[in-house]
Give the backbone structure.
Amino acid sequence: HAQKACDAAVDMIQQLTPLDEKWSAACGFPLRIGIGINTGNARVGNAGSRRRMKYGPLGHTVNLASRLEGVTKTIAVPILVTEATRSQLVDQQRTRRLCRVLAFGMESPVPIYEYRVRDGNADSKWEQLRIEYERAFARYEQMEFAAAKEIAETLLTVDASDEPTKFLIERIEKAESATPESFDPILHMTSK
């Protein structure tokens, strides 16, 4: 099911392109969606009151997926998946570990991964972005900020539009003055 969910997410993003071309000028802004995917047990049922009832999926798995959708706006990637989803994918090379996030209302942080939308000719570029970003992020987690920033800035010469790398550089710059006691590599989301 994890692979099917990711394939469906990619299809949704690809179907949005012609709609964006048609409607963005009329709307005055580009049309974008963010998709969060988590894998695990969930239940379905009614939620609400006697006056207003909603039938749908419930539970931690569903809540975390919903929170990841919100994180897509912060990191500026269209599809985010959890480790639980990534572990069940056929092609894990289409993912890149971005960070650990403590989503709003959750008790513990989870590693999150970007799921790559594009396929085909950009494989070597993606592979370099994936490997080097993860290397930069590992240095960031170890408080090796100069090395992390150097790797990340080099990545922007490979792809100047890579939003996760830009976001990582912002985080590095904010953390450079941190002490070992105050540094927290976890991305804390304070809203949905």
Remarks:
- The mean pLDDT is 92.
- DSSP finds six helices and seven strands in the chain.
